[in-house]
Design goal:
The protein is mainly α and 356 residues long. Among the domains are: 70 residues, no CATH class; 92 residues. Helices cover 72% and strands 0% of the residues. The protein is built from 19 helices and no strands. The radius of gyration is 27 Å and the shape is globular. InterPro entries: PPR_rpt, TPR-like_helical_dom_sf. Keywords: Repeat. This is Pentatricopeptide repeat-containing protein. One of its GO terms (cellular component) is chloroplast.
């Protein structure tokens, strides 16, 4: 169309650009943009689309090169573009660049919005910033994130559920359940109800801390609020009980989720198999193996190894060999340690039969 002398307007080109960026490889759409940028009418949104594409592709340097071009075209950066760049820098671990962009916004009179603060808070937690990072927040990363949140509120912007969940997750990752609890309390005081995600983050944290009593209590509180636990919620609870070796509790939850018409996924099945193997219950583990086969859910390498190990301990070398064959058929190469387990089991069986 362009080659025939028809010049599309910026809106038309932006729609096409959005489609090309979303459906092509980075090199393909990057070439498309550069080949056409001098032939069509561009606006600030055109650059916003391409900058977002570069950030999503991890091409941060190209995003900054585009800023130069954007200004050469006579356009000014807006809050959306700044936030996109800040998000891209945070995801690449380049917090200093994110900081510079944040302060630059203020210099140009642009007011950060709720999403800007959200990506910054997420970036602080994700990148483990402690005494480095933002000049105005010299304390621990949690203080920095909360300071950002307070700054957000002081500007008349209300933190969203997403922002609060990021804060809860950040505290939980540091093992600070007290801090996470304060965030949840603040949410409730501001009229924002904790979501299924909020509760699952907390349940996962207490399960990881070996406090299954609290984890189960949180699941009950969740249900009392009308929030239905999903597969992920059950997964973290089942994993917690399996780690503690409480397979009766894990099995009870497994049956409960099935009764609630929630289909266990491969993560839950593999977790249960490992739990039964550690318990020495090869019969129960094998039964789950068969269920996985029927549902076309692939066992992972750890499940195969533990399953083969428990079978070898029970001198069931033939069953163990059949599992090795299934491993190979599914495209998993058995390690030398697995093959050695079977070899020893076969030798033990041979010695035992000769002694008999």
């Amino acid at each position: 169309m362009v080659d025939k002398g028809f010049v599309p307007g910026s809106n038309c080109f932006n729609n096409l650009l959005t489609f090309v960026v979303g459906s092509s490889s980075f090199n393909q759409w990057w070439c498309f943009f550069n080949e056409n940028k001098s032939k069509v009418d561009l606006d600030v949104y055109s650059f916003g689309i391409v900058i977002k594409g570069c950030c999503e592709a991890g091409e941060i340097e190209k995003s900054f090169d585009l800023l130069v071009e954007l200004r050469e075209f006579g356009f000014s950066l807006n809050v959306v573009i700044y936030t996109t760049l800040i998000d891209g820098c945070c995801k690449k671990g380049e917090i200093e660049k994110a900081k510079d962009l944040f302060f630059e916004m203020g210099k140009f009179g642009l007011v950060a919005n709720e999403w800007t603060y959200t990506v910054l808070i997420h970036g602080l937690f994700k990148n483990g910033i402690k005494k480095q990072g933002f000049e105005m927040y010299e304390k621990m990363q949690e203080d920095g994130a909360l300071s950002l949140c307070r700054d957000l509120k002081s500007r008349g912007l209300s933190p969203s559920l997403v922002t609060y969940n990021i804060l809860v997750s950040g505290f939980c990752k540091k093992g600070d359940t007290s801090g996470a609890g304060k965030v949840v309390k603040e949410m409730e005081e501001r009229g924002i109800k904790p979501s299924k995600v909020t509760y699952t983050i907390l349940i996962d944290t207490f399960a990881s801390m070996d406090n299954m009593e609290k984890a189960i209590q949180l699941r009950s509180s969740m249900e009392e609020l009308g929030l239905t636990p999903d597969v992920h919620t059950y997964s973290v609870l089942i994993h917690g009980f399996c780690i503690k070796g409480q397979m009766n509790e894990a099995s009870r939850l497994f049956k409960l989720m099935v009764a609630k018409k929630l289909e266990p996924n491969k993560v839950i099945y593999n977790t249960m198999v490992l739990g039964y193997c550690k318990e020495g219950s090869s019969y129960r583990a094998l039964r789950l193996f068969r269920e996985m086969e029927e549902k076309e859910l692939p066992p992972n390498v750890a499940s195969y190894r533990y399953m083969i190990e428990v079978l070898c301990k029970e001198r069931k070398s033939k069953e163990a060999e059949r599992l090795v064959e299934k491993m190979i058929d599914s495209g998993i190469d058995p390690s030398d340690s697995i093959l050695n387990l079977i070899s020893r089991a076969k030798n033990d069986s041979h010695v035992s039969s000769n002694n008999d």
